[in-house]
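Summary for the lay section of the report: proteins are chains of building blocks that fold into shapes. Here we show the chain for Glycerophosphoryl diester phosphodiesterase and then a coded description of the shape we predicted for it.
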Amino acid sequence: MSSDGFCIVGHRGAPHEALENTLESFQAARRMGVGAVEFDVQLSRDGVPFLFHDFSTERLAGIDRYIVEMHSSQVRGIELQGSYRIPSLQDALKGLKGIVKFIELKTLWPDGVDRNPGIVDAVCSMVEKEGAVKECRIISFDPRKTREVRERYPGFVTGIDIDVQTLQSPLGDMVREEMRECDLLVPESGLARELGKERERCIPWTVNSIGEAMEFMDSGYMGIISDVAPSLIRAMGLLCVSP
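The coded shape description reads as follows.
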């Protein structure tokens, strides 16, 4: 595949420029030529979708609180490192028009319990409300969620996140099923090499070296997800394209 068709997705924005999963991080990525970003979404206690990767706020805010246990007003009041704030999905959709957004639905805790059972409706209805369906890709490690999106919101592009842990989990068979049914495959980079026949719909993560990025591009993969997307785009001389 030529470089014209290769997409480099900013993993949680441009985390080397601003704190991950914040509007500032995504805006920095866009300013630096990134045409697509990835972010994680989970629900507050009252069902509002917010952008945050960890289930606990301890790593980024220094307090051990859980997004799913807090009211949306409490989530909005949390000050992260560097005085950043946790954006809502609506904030992101309004502030990031014109670039592709990979929205990862966070559901599976380490104990396997789904503590965001209403996340598909909350996210997809918000995306529809903001008129952003064509700009969004709904992805998840939880195959039940990607299946629900496909069945209830057929106009959305879906992708299944893949790693060894989920393939070996009780949901492994369903993950393999969703690998056949979803539009996109989003595997850990080591597993991506085993999916060579599906490379044209495969976007591996997290690829941070130019050597590995070039390998995937030259092998015909659709794109990659990277913590250093702006740097790779510059180093590889790419124009930003959207998957």
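Put simply, here is one thing we learned. The chain has a mean pLDDT of 95.
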